[in-house]
Amino acid sequence: MTSRDVQDLTDLVAELERSQRQEDVDGFLALFDPSAVWVNGAGRRLIGLDEISEFTRGVLPGAMATGSVDYDVEHVAFITPDVALTGVRQQYTDLDGRPLAEDGAGSPTYVWIRTGSTWRIVAGQNTAVIAPG
């Protein structure tokens, strides 16, 4: 639970952003623990890396053809020294980097587990942020 741990987790969220922007399926999947559980933005629960992989390989290629995504770590909380939560602000943008007006924001939460010196996502949920009104 050091500033280095916070930086490592922030760097991993940046890698998540990079892998999505570049449609790097293998880079994206490398961030997950084999036993991970992921609830995607549409509310579909994916259990285990096999399900996460099958879903990702079906949706990530081509997903950034008309836009991009930005991630900003809003907070990091340590549950134990080897389990951490990152709260992220996610913004989908058009190809010029302008935020999408409709259904363009999310608030992903990632739970990371450290084995040795390696952090992997063990649980995550991406929730759409609905504008008031």
Structure description:
The chain has 133 residues and is α+β, with helices and mostly antiparallel strands. Helices cover 27% and strands 41% of the residues. The protein has three helices and seven strands. The chain has helices at residues 3-21, 25-29, 48-59, and strands at 32-39, 45-47, 67-80, 83-94, 105-106, 109-115, 118-125. Strands 1, 2, 3, 4, 5, 6 and 7 form a seven-stranded mixed sheet that branches. The longest helix has 19 residues, at 3-21.
> N-to-C SSE series?
HHEEHEEEEE
Proportion of helical residues: 25-40%
For the terminal residues, how far apart are their CA atoms? 40 Å
Q: β content, as a range?
A: 35-45%
Mean pLDDT: 92
Beta-strand segment tally: 7
What's the story with the biggest beta sheet?
7 strands, mixed
Note the total helix count.
3
Radius of gyration: 14 Å
Principal-axes geometry comes out as: globular
Oligomer description:
single chain
Low-pLDDT windows of residues: none
Structural class: alpha+beta
How would you concisely characterize the structure shown here?
With 133 residues, the chain is α+β, with helices and mostly antiparallel strands. Helices cover 27% and strands 41% of the residues.
Topology of helices and strands:
Layout: H1 3-21, H2 25-29, E1 32-39, E2 45-47, H3 48-59, E3 67-80, E4 83-94, E5 105-106, E6 109-115, E7 118-125
Parallel strand pairs: 1-7
Antiparallel strand pairs: 1-2, 3-4, 4-5, 4-6, 6-7
